[in-house]
Amino acid sequence: RAVLERDLREAMRDGGFVLHYQPIMTLATGEPGGFEALMRWRHPKRGMISPADFIPLAEETGLILPLGLWVLQQACRDAAAWPDHVRVSVNLSPVQFRSRTLVADVLAALEASGLPPQRLALEITEAVLMHDVDQALQVMQALRQQGVRTALDDFGTGYSSLSYLRRFPFDKIKIDRSFVVDLAQGESAACIIKAISTLAGGLGMSTIAEGVETL
Fold it and tell me: For the chain, percent helix, then strand, then coil, each to nearest 5?
């Protein structure tokens, strides 16, 4: 753990991280309507390291704050060069979301890059909402007032409380990939996906299905 933390600090200093962009396809057109920014660590000895292997350590040590800020700034810079209709999505960790400077950091990244707020979506999980509901609501309302979109990530796992959908101003719901992967195994997954998408549509939210590899 100590070695990994040391390497993580060195990677931050030396620019050892890179963003990969996963397309978010629009079924009606078959074209990408946006891309999700995914951080990867290019380790000089271990090769490409998945976030699952270093994000928990970054959160424990507080390094997730400078890392998350870099992702936000870089994703906005990259997306500013894309076609005007293409959006970018950035994941926020619970530690980032609780930062008192989050809204200011988002606005600064948008201003520095020239990216319109409507083209940025911030993805959060239920863990963010469970920590301090009132503070989370204030942050999300402040972001929405500036035009930034928000998405509830990994919906269908955890508690998946419907009260979150009533109280928080989400623009999108992301169906967890576990349901999508199980589509071919029986009707239960399909029923759940249909129920979630119908619910989202009734609330004026769009739906994204994770884990779709083919069209």
Answer: 50, 25, 25
Q: Cα–Cα distances in Å, from 143 out to 5, 57, 83, 106, 189?
A: 32, 28, 23, 8, 33
Q: Are strands 17-26 and 31-43 parallel, antiparallel or unpaired?
A: antiparallel
| Among candidate residues 125, 6, 19, 129, the one with its CA nearest the CA of residue 75 | 19
Both tokens of 165, joined, read: 């959908």
For residue 70, count other CB atoms closer than 10 A to its CB. 16
Cα→Cα distances 199→90, 160, 172, Å: 24, 13, 11
pLDDT, tens only, 16-60 = 999 999 999 998 888 999 999 999 998 888 888 888 889 999 998
* pTM of the shown model: 0.90
